[in-house]
């Protein structure tokens, strides 16, 4: 698997670190509002947006595409009592998820484009910066919509300017183009400014916990966090020329 999958070895190392590092857990709480072992941009405000789409009053089922170690799903379960499902290609991530969440939870190691679920099983499917890993994004979108119940929601956080090329606007992204090609209606919110402010907070939190990282022998992860946030040492205008971030919602 590791010889052909994007960033596989890096994520194996990342989730091994996330399980053992107190410095990283403390950093996540300060940067994002809670520790979901974030390696990206999903803070508590973005994740709380998902709750509005999870039905209450009956057992709901949520699938997270690229669930990591399941901490985001665990938070959503705590807030909604939903049955949580997740898959990820990282063996370390899934091993941790299975240890942390044992009740009304199902985790599988698998790949976008290869893993499958029954039709109309889920009320909500989330993809937090994971659509980029689909070998055929258009095909996977159609597959995921098939997994949704009637009126179910696909909730996608999508970044441009790093893995995916920066395009003109929210309607010209590769993801939006795949939806348009199949005449799938969607709603989209531009959260680029919000992300810029979050990255500044992320950088400040990393600096705050620098000594913790150093004392536990995790300086390389501090260095990674600083490299990830170099982009906010320039103005928002320059940042927005290179980067963009959107939340797409698709209702079946």
Structure, explained:
With 252 residues, the chain is of the alpha/beta class. The protein has one domain (8-251): Rossmann fold (3-Layer(aba) Sandwich), CATH 3.40.50.150. The chain is 44% helix and 19% strand. The chain has a seven-stranded mixed β-sheet. 39% of the residues are buried. The model has no long low-confidence stretch (mean pLDDT 93).
List keywords for this structure.
252 residues, alpha/beta, Rossmann fold, 7-stranded mixed beta sheet, 19% strand, 11 helices
Query: How many domains would you count in the coordinates?
Result: 1
Q: What is the first-to-last residue Cα distance?
A: 33 Å
- Derived structural class: alpha/beta
How many strands in all? 7
The CATH superfamily bears the name Vaccinia Virus protein VP39
Quote the average pLDDT: 93
Radius of gyration: 18 Å
Task: Give the arrangement of secondary structure elements.
Layout lengths: L7 H13 L1 H11 L11 H8 L9 E5 L5 H10 L2 E6 L2 H10 L4 E5 L12 E7 L8 H11 E13 L13 H8 L5 E4 L1 H17 L1 H6 L3 H10 L7 H7 L1 E8 L1
Parallel strand pairs: 1-2, 1-4, 2-3, 4-5
Antiparallel strand pairs: 5-7, 6-7
Helix pairs in contact: 1-5, 2-8, 3-4, 8-10
Quick structural overview:
With 252 residues, the chain is α/β, with parallel strands linked by helices. It has helices at residues 8-20, 22-32, 44-51, 71-80, 91-100, 137-147, 174-181, 192-208, 210-215, 219-228, 236-242, and strands at residues 61-65, 83-88, 105-109, 122-128, 148-160, 187-190, 244-251.
